[in-house]
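Tutorial, part two.
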Amino acid sequence: MTKNKAKRIKIFGEGGQGVQFMADTLIRYLAKLGFYATFLPEYDAAVRGGQITAEVAFNQKQTPCPQDTEFNAIFCLSGNEKTDGLVVDKKFQLSDLLDKDETYKNTRVLGQIISFLELPFNKEAILAALPDKRKDSNYQLVKEGYQAYGSQRTSG
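Running the prediction step on this input gives:
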C-alpha cells in the first residue's frame, strides 16, 4: 500500500456479525502502525439482525474524512447489502473470504481485510488492538485470515 495515499473500505453486515468489532479493532491496529484512521458506523437498529455498516478511512497523514461514494473495497458479510451507487475497486462476499465454519468468522475476515489492504502483519500491534477477552485465540484467527487471503492473492 502506498503510504501517503488514503484508503477507504466499507464493511456491510447485520447486527451480531461483529461489524463494529472488526472496524474498531482495525482502526486500533492502524493507529498502532502510525496511521490516522476514522470509523463511521451506520445501523438500522441496535438489535441482532438489523443492517449495519462501518466505513473505515485511513491515511499516513492527517486528512479530512472523505464524504464521497468511492471505496477501495467493500466487504459484504450477510448477502443482503444494498451497495447501489457506490464506486468500488473490489467487492468481497463472505463466501469469497471464508472456507471454514462460521464460528468467529468476523475475526478471520478481519485478518483478510488487513492482508487485502497490504498492511504489515505486526503481532504486537494486533495484540494491542484486540480486546482482552480471548485475546490469544482471536490473534490466531486474525493471523489465519491474513495468511489465507495472502495465499489467495499470491496464487491467483
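The mean pLDDT is 81. In part three we will examine how such features are distributed along the chain.
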